[in-house]
Amino acid sequence: MSLLNVEGLSKFYDGETKVLNDINFEIKSGEFVSVIGPSGAGKSTLLRCINRLVDINEGKVLFDGLDVASMKKKELRKLRTNIGMIFQHYNLVPRLTVIENVLHGRFGYKSTLQGVLGMFTEKEKEQAFHLLEKLGIAEHAYKRCDQLSGGQQQRVGICRALIQEPKLILCDEPIASLDPNSSKVIMDYLQSISSEMGITCIVNLHQVEVAKEYASRIIGLRKGEVVFDGASQFLYNEQ
Ligand code: ADP
Ligand code: ADP
Protein backbone atom coordinates (compact mmCIF):
# COMPACT_ATOMS: atom_id res chain seq x y z
CA MET A 1 0.00 0.00 0.00
CA SER A 2 1.38 3.40 -0.87
CA LEU A 3 2.14 5.82 1.93
CA LEU A 4 2.89 8.77 -0.28
CA ASN A 5 1.64 9.80 -3.71
CA VAL A 6 3.09 12.81 -5.43
CA GLU A 7 1.06 13.72 -8.50
CA GLY A 8 1.94 16.52 -10.91
CA LEU A 9 3.59 18.53 -8.15
CA SER A 10 4.95 21.93 -9.15
CA LYS A 11 6.37 24.62 -6.92
CA PHE A 12 7.53 28.15 -7.60
CA TYR A 13 8.64 30.59 -4.94
CA ASP A 14 8.38 33.87 -6.78
CA GLY A 15 5.68 33.10 -9.31
CA GLU A 16 8.20 32.76 -12.11
CA THR A 17 10.76 29.98 -12.10
CA LYS A 18 9.51 26.54 -11.30
CA VAL A 19 11.70 25.02 -8.62
CA LEU A 20 9.78 21.76 -9.01
CA ASN A 21 8.12 20.90 -12.30
CA ASP A 22 5.50 18.17 -12.61
CA ILE A 23 6.93 15.69 -10.12
CA ASN A 24 5.27 12.25 -9.98
CA PHE A 25 6.14 9.30 -7.80
CA GLU A 26 4.70 6.90 -5.29
CA ILE A 27 6.37 5.58 -2.16
CA LYS A 28 5.26 2.42 -0.43
CA SER A 29 5.24 1.93 3.29
CA GLY A 30 8.66 0.74 4.52
CA GLU A 31 10.70 1.92 1.52
CA PHE A 32 14.12 3.53 1.96
CA VAL A 33 14.45 6.06 -0.83
CA SER A 34 17.21 8.53 -1.52
CA VAL A 35 16.60 11.73 -3.46
CA ILE A 36 19.79 12.83 -5.16
CA GLY A 37 20.77 15.77 -7.30
CA PRO A 38 23.12 18.75 -7.36
CA SER A 39 22.64 21.75 -5.10
CA GLY A 40 19.63 23.77 -6.24
CA ALA A 41 17.90 20.78 -7.89
CA GLY A 42 14.89 21.15 -5.59
CA LYS A 43 15.49 18.29 -3.11
CA SER A 44 14.89 20.40 -0.06
CA THR A 45 11.81 22.03 -1.54
CA LEU A 46 10.39 18.60 -2.38
CA LEU A 47 10.62 17.51 1.28
CA ARG A 48 9.11 20.82 2.41
CA CYS A 49 6.13 20.28 0.11
CA ILE A 50 5.56 16.81 1.59
CA ASN A 51 5.12 18.07 5.16
CA ARG A 52 3.72 21.41 3.94
CA LEU A 53 6.44 23.63 5.35
CA VAL A 54 5.83 25.45 2.08
CA ASP A 55 2.61 25.77 0.10
CA ILE A 56 2.02 23.60 -2.93
CA ASN A 57 1.30 25.51 -6.14
CA GLU A 58 0.15 22.75 -8.49
CA GLY A 59 -0.59 19.06 -8.22
CA LYS A 60 -1.15 16.82 -5.27
CA VAL A 61 0.70 15.28 -2.37
CA LEU A 62 -1.28 12.47 -0.77
CA PHE A 63 -0.07 11.15 2.58
CA ASP A 64 -1.92 8.03 3.65
CA GLY A 65 -4.51 9.00 1.05
CA LEU A 66 -5.06 12.48 2.50
CA ASP A 67 -4.47 15.60 0.43
CA VAL A 68 -1.70 17.56 2.10
CA ALA A 69 -2.24 20.72 0.01
CA SER A 70 -5.68 21.41 1.45
CA MET A 71 -4.96 20.57 5.09
CA LYS A 72 -5.97 23.05 7.77
CA LYS A 73 -4.16 23.72 11.05
CA LYS A 74 -5.37 20.71 13.00
CA GLU A 75 -4.78 18.24 10.17
CA LEU A 76 -1.36 19.76 9.56
CA ARG A 77 -0.41 19.17 13.19
CA LYS A 78 -1.38 15.53 12.81
CA LEU A 79 0.52 15.28 9.52
CA ARG A 80 3.68 16.63 11.11
CA THR A 81 3.37 14.17 13.98
CA ASN A 82 3.29 11.40 11.41
CA ILE A 83 6.28 12.83 9.58
CA GLY A 84 9.60 13.21 11.40
CA MET A 85 12.14 15.64 10.01
CA ILE A 86 15.93 15.52 10.19
CA PHE A 87 18.01 18.51 9.06
CA GLN A 88 21.55 19.15 7.90
CA HIS A 89 22.20 21.50 10.81
CA TYR A 90 20.30 19.34 13.35
CA ASN A 91 18.01 22.24 14.39
CA LEU A 92 18.27 21.45 18.09
CA VAL A 93 17.59 24.00 20.82
CA PRO A 94 21.12 24.77 22.08
CA ARG A 95 20.22 25.83 25.61
CA LEU A 96 18.27 22.65 26.31
CA THR A 97 19.77 19.35 27.36
CA VAL A 98 19.89 16.36 25.06
CA ILE A 99 16.92 14.63 26.69
CA GLU A 100 14.89 17.85 26.70
CA ASN A 101 15.54 18.23 22.98
CA VAL A 102 14.26 14.72 22.40
CA LEU A 103 11.14 15.28 24.52
CA HIS A 104 10.63 18.54 22.68
CA GLY A 105 9.99 16.45 19.55
CA ARG A 106 6.79 15.07 20.92
CA PHE A 107 5.79 17.29 23.77
CA GLY A 108 7.10 20.58 22.43
CA TYR A 109 4.35 22.64 23.97
CA LYS A 110 5.38 21.61 27.46
CA SER A 111 9.04 22.45 27.17
CA THR A 112 8.29 25.71 25.41
CA LEU A 113 6.01 26.78 28.21
CA GLN A 114 7.98 25.44 31.13
CA GLY A 115 11.45 24.70 29.88
CA VAL A 116 12.00 22.19 32.66
CA LEU A 117 12.47 18.48 32.66
CA GLY A 118 10.22 18.24 35.73
CA MET A 119 7.23 18.82 33.49
CA PHE A 120 7.57 15.44 31.85
CA THR A 121 6.20 12.23 33.29
CA GLU A 122 8.54 9.39 34.20
CA LYS A 123 7.11 7.38 31.34
CA GLU A 124 7.88 10.12 28.83
CA LYS A 125 11.41 10.46 30.16
CA GLU A 126 11.93 6.70 30.04
CA GLN A 127 10.80 6.65 26.45
CA ALA A 128 13.27 9.42 25.53
CA PHE A 129 16.07 7.72 27.46
CA HIS A 130 15.36 4.44 25.77
CA LEU A 131 15.76 6.08 22.36
CA LEU A 132 19.02 7.72 23.43
CA GLU A 133 20.27 4.27 24.50
CA LYS A 134 19.26 2.85 21.16
CA LEU A 135 21.27 5.52 19.38
CA GLY A 136 24.23 5.05 21.75
CA ILE A 137 24.17 8.49 23.37
CA ALA A 138 22.38 7.88 26.68
CA GLU A 139 25.50 8.89 28.62
CA HIS A 140 25.07 12.43 27.25
CA ALA A 141 21.38 12.72 28.16
CA TYR A 142 21.82 15.54 30.68
CA LYS A 143 24.43 17.56 28.83
CA ARG A 144 23.49 20.67 26.90
CA CYS A 145 23.19 19.52 23.33
CA ASP A 146 25.64 22.14 22.05
CA GLN A 147 28.40 20.31 23.97
CA LEU A 148 28.07 17.31 21.67
CA SER A 149 29.88 16.62 18.41
CA GLY A 150 28.02 17.05 15.12
CA GLY A 151 27.47 13.32 14.71
CA GLN A 152 26.13 13.04 18.26
CA GLN A 153 23.82 16.01 17.71
CA GLN A 154 22.43 14.38 14.59
CA ARG A 155 21.71 11.27 16.67
CA VAL A 156 19.74 13.50 19.06
CA GLY A 157 17.89 14.77 15.99
CA ILE A 158 17.02 11.21 15.04
CA CYS A 159 15.73 10.48 18.57
CA ARG A 160 13.63 13.65 18.46
CA ALA A 161 12.07 12.46 15.21
CA LEU A 162 11.52 8.92 16.48
CA ILE A 163 9.77 9.89 19.70
CA GLN A 164 6.85 11.11 17.59
CA GLU A 165 6.45 7.52 16.38
CA PRO A 166 6.32 8.74 12.79
CA LYS A 167 5.31 6.73 9.76
CA LEU A 168 7.71 8.64 7.56
CA ILE A 169 11.04 10.31 8.20
CA LEU A 170 12.28 13.04 5.88
CA CYS A 171 16.01 13.66 6.06
CA ASP A 172 17.34 16.79 4.38
CA GLU A 173 21.07 16.28 3.75
CA PRO A 174 21.55 14.60 7.15
CA ILE A 175 25.28 13.98 6.65
CA ALA A 176 26.31 17.07 4.68
CA SER A 177 28.00 18.63 7.73
CA LEU A 178 29.63 15.45 9.02
CA ASP A 179 32.98 13.71 8.53
CA PRO A 180 33.01 10.29 6.80
CA ASN A 181 33.03 8.28 10.03
CA SER A 182 30.09 10.11 11.59
CA SER A 183 28.31 9.99 8.25
CA LYS A 184 28.55 6.22 8.20
CA VAL A 185 27.21 5.98 11.76
CA ILE A 186 24.22 8.18 10.88
CA MET A 187 23.44 6.37 7.63
CA ASP A 188 23.69 2.99 9.42
CA TYR A 189 21.22 4.18 12.05
CA LEU A 190 18.81 5.50 9.42
CA GLN A 191 18.98 2.21 7.60
CA SER A 192 18.32 0.21 10.76
CA ILE A 193 15.39 2.45 11.68
CA SER A 194 13.91 1.63 8.32
CA SER A 195 14.58 -2.10 8.38
CA GLU A 196 13.92 -2.80 12.08
CA MET A 197 11.12 -0.36 12.81
CA GLY A 198 9.54 -0.39 9.38
CA ILE A 199 9.57 3.40 9.16
CA THR A 200 9.60 4.78 5.63
CA CYS A 201 12.61 7.01 4.99
CA ILE A 202 13.29 9.62 2.32
CA VAL A 203 16.86 10.86 2.49
CA ASN A 204 18.15 13.80 0.47
CA LEU A 205 21.80 13.35 -0.42
CA HIS A 206 24.16 14.95 -2.86
CA GLN A 207 26.67 12.08 -2.69
CA VAL A 208 25.60 9.50 -5.26
CA GLU A 209 27.88 6.77 -3.81
CA VAL A 210 26.26 7.03 -0.38
CA ALA A 211 22.80 6.87 -1.90
CA LYS A 212 23.74 3.77 -3.89
CA GLU A 213 25.19 2.08 -0.83
CA TYR A 214 22.17 2.59 1.40
CA ALA A 215 19.00 3.19 -0.57
CA SER A 216 17.20 0.48 -2.48
CA ARG A 217 15.55 3.10 -4.64
CA ILE A 218 16.85 6.39 -5.92
CA ILE A 219 14.96 9.39 -7.25
CA GLY A 220 17.24 11.70 -9.23
CA LEU A 221 16.29 15.36 -9.46
CA ARG A 222 17.80 17.88 -11.82
CA LYS A 223 16.53 21.42 -12.26
CA GLY A 224 13.28 20.53 -10.55
CA GLU A 225 12.50 17.48 -12.65
CA VAL A 226 12.74 13.76 -11.98
CA VAL A 227 15.49 12.43 -14.26
CA PHE A 228 15.77 8.98 -12.67
CA ASP A 229 13.52 6.81 -10.52
CA GLY A 230 14.45 3.22 -9.96
CA ALA A 231 16.55 0.62 -8.21
CA SER A 232 19.95 1.92 -7.13
CA GLN A 233 21.89 -0.62 -9.18
CA PHE A 234 20.55 0.86 -12.40
CA LEU A 235 21.87 4.32 -11.65
CA TYR A 236 25.09 5.27 -13.41
CA ASN A 237 27.51 7.25 -11.32
CA GLU A 238 27.62 10.18 -13.71
CA GLN A 239 23.92 10.81 -13.19
P1 ADP B 1 18.41 21.55 -3.13
O1 ADP B 1 17.87 21.09 -1.83
O2 ADP B 1 18.42 20.49 -4.18
O3 ADP B 1 19.75 22.23 -2.99
P2 ADP B 1 16.42 23.64 -2.94
O4 ADP B 1 15.09 23.04 -2.89
O5 ADP B 1 17.06 24.13 -1.67
O6 ADP B 1 17.40 22.65 -3.70
O7 ADP B 1 16.40 24.86 -3.94
C1 ADP B 1 15.90 24.77 -5.25
C2 ADP B 1 15.85 26.16 -5.85
O8 ADP B 1 14.87 26.92 -5.18
C3 ADP B 1 17.15 26.93 -5.76
O9 ADP B 1 17.30 27.66 -6.94
C4 ADP B 1 16.91 27.85 -4.57
O10 ADP B 1 17.67 29.02 -4.69
C5 ADP B 1 15.42 28.13 -4.68
N1 ADP B 1 14.83 28.38 -3.36
C6 ADP B 1 14.86 27.56 -2.29
N2 ADP B 1 14.19 28.09 -1.25
C7 ADP B 1 13.72 29.28 -1.69
C8 ADP B 1 12.96 30.32 -1.08
N3 ADP B 1 12.53 30.23 0.19
N4 ADP B 1 12.65 31.40 -1.84
C9 ADP B 1 13.07 31.50 -3.12
N5 ADP B 1 13.79 30.56 -3.75
C10 ADP B 1 14.12 29.47 -3.04
P1 ADP C 1 20.69 24.15 1.37
O1 ADP C 1 22.09 24.08 0.87
O2 ADP C 1 20.46 23.44 2.70
O3 ADP C 1 19.64 23.80 0.33
P2 ADP C 1 20.37 26.95 0.92
O4 ADP C 1 21.57 27.78 1.21
O5 ADP C 1 20.01 26.60 -0.48
O6 ADP C 1 20.48 25.65 1.81
O7 ADP C 1 19.09 27.61 1.58
C1 ADP C 1 19.08 28.03 2.91
C2 ADP C 1 17.75 28.73 3.17
O8 ADP C 1 17.57 29.80 2.27
C3 ADP C 1 16.54 27.82 2.98
O9 ADP C 1 15.58 28.12 3.94
C4 ADP C 1 16.03 28.16 1.61
O10 ADP C 1 14.63 27.94 1.50
C5 ADP C 1 16.37 29.62 1.51
N1 ADP C 1 16.69 30.02 0.12
C6 ADP C 1 17.47 29.36 -0.75
N2 ADP C 1 17.51 30.01 -1.92
C7 ADP C 1 16.77 31.12 -1.77
C8 ADP C 1 16.43 32.22 -2.62
N3 ADP C 1 16.84 32.28 -3.89
N4 ADP C 1 15.63 33.17 -2.13
C9 ADP C 1 15.19 33.10 -0.87
N5 ADP C 1 15.47 32.12 -0.02
C10 ADP C 1 16.25 31.13 -0.45
Description of the structure:
The chain has 239 residues and is an alpha/beta fold. It has seven helices and ten strands. Strands 6-7-8-3-9-10 form a six-stranded mixed beta sheet, with helices on both faces. Helix 3 packs across helix 5 and helix 5 runs parallel beside helix 6. The protein is globular. The two termini are 29 Å apart. It binds adenosine-5'-diphosphate (ADP) (2 copies). Keywords: ATP-binding, Nucleotide-binding.
Helix content: 25-40%
Instruction: List segments where confidence is low: pLDDT < 50 over at least 5 consecutive residues.
Output: none
Overall morphology: globular
Number of helices: 7
Number-wise, the strands total 10
Taking strands numbered 1, 2, ... along the chain, how are they ordered across the largest sheet? Answer: 6-7-8-3-9-10
Protein name: Phosphonate ABC transporter ATP-binding protein
Organism: Gracilibacillus pellucidus
Keywords: ATP-binding, Nucleotide-binding
Quick recap of the structure?
The chain has 239 residues and is of the alpha/beta class. It is 36% helix and 26% strand. Helix 3 packs across helix 5 (150-162) and helix 5 (150-162) packs parallel to helix 6 (180-197).
